[in-house]
Amino acid sequence: MDAHRRRSSPPAKNFSADQQPVKSMAKNPLKVKMMEQRDHDAVKASDVLPLPIYLTNAAFFTLFFSVVYFLLTRWREKIRSSTPLHVVTLSEMVAISAFVASFIYLLGFFGIDFVQSIFRPSHDVWTSEDDEVVLVREDTRKVPCGAGIDCAMPILASPVPSVPKVVDPVPVSFDLTEEDEEIVKSVVAGATPSYSLESKLGDCARAAAIRRESLQRITGKSLSGLPLEGFDYASILGQCCEMPVGYVQVPVGIAGPLLLDGKEYSVPMATTEGCLVASTNRGCKAIMMSGGANSVLLRDAMTRAPVMRFATAKRAAELKFYVEEPANFDTLASVFNKSSRFGRLQSIKCAIAGKNLYMRFSCSTGDAMGMNMVSKGVQNVLDFLQTDFPDMDVIGISGNYCSDKKPAAVNWIEGRGKSVVCEVTITGDVVKKVLKTDVQALVELNMLKNLTGSAMAGALGGFNAHASNIVSAIFIATGQDPAQNVESSHCITMMEAVNNGQDLHVSVTMPSIEVGTVGGGTQLASQSACLNLLGVKGASREAPGSNARLLATIVAGSVLAGELSLMSAISAGHLVRSHMKYNRSSRDVTRASSS
Asked: Which residues are part of the catalytic machinery?
């Protein structure tokens, strides 16, 4: 080892005490920076722990108001005793000095930066003129800042060779420019709100990248597994998602073709549950081999139910009678319909709870899901009613009698969105060869599981095997509101032996499928592509609303296929076996966790 040290050590040279540092520093700028860093890291007398800022502020606030109160009291006493104000005592001189000191501190802490922010040029929010000549050394970290040991990117006066650091071997998600680095520091320090980056920068992708890096530095957690690039962040600004830092990848599988009403559809399903697409695909095959399924749209109406309060229950009942009077409906419909070209009021149903009135408005909404459309129309009607009922107190535009994104009997009974029934007759041969079970076993299982079992559980709209699985997968793939899966998955599955017990009649009745083909997430590229695959992209010009209605029937038809396949798997005892085969990872979890 001594020999190795002798070989690796440079030969000694003789320099005078004042020559050696001058020459070495002139030849090696990096050494200058390292020596400065060493001096900076040295322990100094001023490095003692400072008083917490909130305690300092509290002390100066207390001092300021105390001396102000003291001086005002002394001033009042001098006026009463006719003592000249310029004659001051020692205590008053101390109080005046304390007043001036505390005033200067508070002004410097709270006032100066506020005044400067008013007159500061917009580009100075991120950088100053002196910063423009600074070069950023190449970032050699192998990990996003959130997972790194040292989150600060050194800023040097000139480009120099990088100093290696010990970090985790994870690729950097993006490169920061000098200006971006300053913005990140501003966000981390709390000087720049994260939500304002899009408006300040005018670049949504850049704002997302800066917000992401700031989040990693603040939390100390890495987001290396969350994709950032390859997404159009401008497309979600102001309508889909606020303060984005990336996007989640969900695989999309295709079930089908689904033969429904004489047409074939390839159904996109976004899910991370193994067996789901494969099972639905098997159901589609059974439907295809049996001649296809048929669907009927029973109702198409989105709802909104505001809640109003009156001084008495009698007064609330008077408005109820007024609204439900057929002679007044045309007037209210005319007021409602002014809010949109497609929104058309169909009915108003009222309910009273004491002196509170709930009015459930139902209207058609074209190809949009229609929540915003119906809300605008309801607001118009409420403004109109305020003239004849000035004592009406509108508590909320939504009183949960709608009912949105919650399981509710009113949706199960009255319907909300699209109400659809879909049916198919599966031949006995298909039941045996494709579904691997028999007709009588399926009928009995459906009665004991979907009907009796759900009743025993007190289910509300849940008289099915797994309708929400299919609904959620299609909703995510086509840009629907996933939260509306709650009421959209209301479904009752019926199975009956027909043709002397040889064949199986299967139907699903879904009273509240809430879908649209315009607005919200439907305009995003991936979701729009899935809608295009189904032939329902955007609004229909020939028959407004027909695309959304068709999408609802496709959802119901897919649920029919999913119900048929899962019930067959349970009947044949294949459920656990298929999930063990397709829904369990073959990856070595121990190795994965250590990698």
From this structure: 273, 405, 481, 579
